[in-house]
Write a sequence for this structure.
């Protein structure tokens, strides 16, 4: 046999072998019990507490009915999630509120149908720093998750209310997972993003909370559930069940502290791959650090976001609340019952 | 002990103690010590993740790289041989070539969504251009005496390609395979930033999400380095074949 043939054969053999291994180990193609779900409805999320109702809904659905028509798809960062949403891969996703509105302004056919949470954001500074009041941020550098994040608008609101000129504070974009290390190494003076990354800096001892979202902006909204219009047209029933599921999970999470601790357990293990103690911390210290009730869409909340976003050039102001939301899915708050499910029955 | 083992080994031992000492001295709570990285690797093995992730990354690199070879080598040989094709396509190739695969990530997600195809596409791109460009140059630099001699024997065009041009270019092509496989492996981390849920690149990004797991980050880096070394040794072994040696000795 010539060496050319030998190389060809070896390469061919290698390709077949590595593909089979990949299919078995990672794609689960040869798994014996492949659930026969007809094209599950994908819902994008990022492992932050703002999106916690997504995995909770999925997990409880699976526990109650043995399957879920939703497939939570985890992303690592906003740009990738946004691109998957624009391309139509994700019919629905949890997404930053101003980012969703901006996509609508740019002509992407999406609607905000529900909120994902309230509050759940903090600003953390280095414990040794001399920053004790919002005024002390003058001349400092603050990291925010994204230019289209409500966390950025929250900083702007706080600075405005305390008379700090915006051009005297440097705001930089940074992926939330990198923020605790950046604060530790003093690369930035303050960090702000959704949990659990702020809790991380606090828990590890080098971070000190400057403000919680609720101190600056009561009822703060960072992320919303947005759905593509084609999915709304073709799968109204599924979207409705998703919204209902999120509403029920929210009520379930806010029902008792035990539920939150249980959620910390299974979400960190099966969805977020984070340390359960970290999620336990941010879901309980203090208990209203993040909330999952009162998720209906209220025009006034969004008018406030719009006003701040237009001021800072994040939004152009081309679309109105009526354009970018579809409130028809929002359930009547009094009619929402928490999931009737006991964690101890987990299979 | 042999010098070729003793020297690198002592460097590695020195690096180990410098690393450990630096972490201890700086009292860093975040940067992992070498021993923590070792236990992180053990943890990955115990959870069955290491094999899964190595396989996933190797799969993507293998498919992307082999596709790049299958397309890049013939394309390069043709463009190197046919002058007008070269004139037509070379500017386009030169424009696309310097674009980092990372810059293609947004486009890759839009085109291929977020399954295995997107990272494979990025790895394919990263290898395609170095291979094509080297193959073009290799054909263009063939000593004319080879071609004329073959033509004097009256060989057909196909035979000329198979028996003269291809073998004469092979040493350079293999060198470019080595380099581009290195690049492909380099790109795998960036390629797996896309929402795939396996692979060594994913391991690093996931560890960032997991809070303070920099031991896993460094473990992922270490595994990427070690496997990269193995891949390089593997491609190097191609250079031992008789057909390739012909090229080296004749061209020296």
């Amino acid at each position: 046999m010539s060496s050319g043939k030998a190389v060809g054969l070896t390469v061919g053999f290698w390709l077949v072998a590595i593909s089979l291994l990949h299919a078995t180990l990672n794609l689960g193609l040869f798994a014996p019990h492949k659930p026969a779900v007809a094209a599950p409805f994908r819902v994008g999320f990022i492992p932050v507490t703002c999106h916690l109702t997504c995995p909770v809904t999925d997990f409880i659905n699976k526990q109650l009915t043995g399957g879920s028509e939703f497939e939570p798809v985890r992303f690592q960062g906003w740009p990738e999630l946004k691109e998957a949403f624009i391309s139509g891969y994700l019919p629905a996703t949890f997404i930053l509120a101003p980012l969703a509105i901006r996509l609508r302004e740019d002509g992407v056919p999406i609607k905000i149908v529900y909120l994902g949470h309230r509050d759940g954001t903090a600003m953390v500074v280095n414990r040794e720093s001399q920053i004790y009041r919002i005024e002390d941020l003058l001349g400092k550098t603050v990291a925010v998750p994204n230019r289209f994040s409500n966390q950025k608008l929250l900083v702007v609101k706080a600075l405005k209310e305390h008379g700090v000129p915006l051009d005297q504070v440097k705001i930089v974009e940074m992926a939330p997972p990198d923020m605790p290390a950046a604060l530790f190494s003093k690369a930035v003076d303050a960090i702000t993003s959704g949990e659990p990354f702020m809790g991380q800096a606090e828990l590890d001892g080098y971070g000190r909370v400057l403000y919680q979202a609720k101190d600056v902006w009561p009822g703060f909204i960072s992320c919303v559930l947005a759905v593509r219009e084609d999915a709304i047209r073709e799968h109204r029933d599924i979207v409705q069940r998703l919204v209902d599921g999120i509403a029920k999970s929210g009520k379930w999470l806010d029902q008792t502290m035990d539920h939150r601790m249980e959620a910390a357990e299974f979400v960190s293990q099966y969805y977020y791959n984070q340390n359960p103690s970290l999620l336990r911390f941010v879901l309980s210290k203090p208990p209203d650090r993040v909330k999952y009730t009162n998720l209906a869409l209220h025009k006034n909340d969004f008018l406030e976001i719009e006003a701040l976003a237009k001021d800072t050039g994040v939004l152009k102001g081309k679309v109105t609340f009526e354009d970018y939301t579809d409130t028809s899915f929002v359930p009547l708050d009094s009619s929402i019952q928490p999931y009737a499910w006991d964690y101890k029955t987990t299979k | 002990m042999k010098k070729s083992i003793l020297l690198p080994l002592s460097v590695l031992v020195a690096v180990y103690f410098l690393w450990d000492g630096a972490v201890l001295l700086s009292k860093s709570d975040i940067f992992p010590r070498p021993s923590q990285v070792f236990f992180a690797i053990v943890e990955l093995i115990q959870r069955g993740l290491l094999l899964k992730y190595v396989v996933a990354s190797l799969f993507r690199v293998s498919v992307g790289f082999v596709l790049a070879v299958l397309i890049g080598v013939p394309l390069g040989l043709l463009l190197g041989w046919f002058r007008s094709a070269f004139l037509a396509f070379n500017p386009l190739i030169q424009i696309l070539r310097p674009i980092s695969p990372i810059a293609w990530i947004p486009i890759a997600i839009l085109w291929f969504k977020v399954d295995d195809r997107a990272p494979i596409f990025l790895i394919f791109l990263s290898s395609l251009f170095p291979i094509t460009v080297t193959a073009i140059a290799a054909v263009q630099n063939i000593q004319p005496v080879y071609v004329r001699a073959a033509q004097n024997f009256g060989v057909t065009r196909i035979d000329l390609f198979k028996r003269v041009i291809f073998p004469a270019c092979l040493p350079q092509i293999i060198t470019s395979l080595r380099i581009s496989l290195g690049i492909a492996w380099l790109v795998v981390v960036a390629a797996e930033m896309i929402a795939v849920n396996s692979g060594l690149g994913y391991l690093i990004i996931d560890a960032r999400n997991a809070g303070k797991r920099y031991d896993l980050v460094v473990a992922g880096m270490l595994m990427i380095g070690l496997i990269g070394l193995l891949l390089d040794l593997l491609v190097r072994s191609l250079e031992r074949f008789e057909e390739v040696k012909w090229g080296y000795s004749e061209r020296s």
Q: What stands out?
A: The first helix of chain B runs from residue 3 to 26. Chain B has a mean pLDDT of 85. The radius of gyration of chain B is 22 Å.
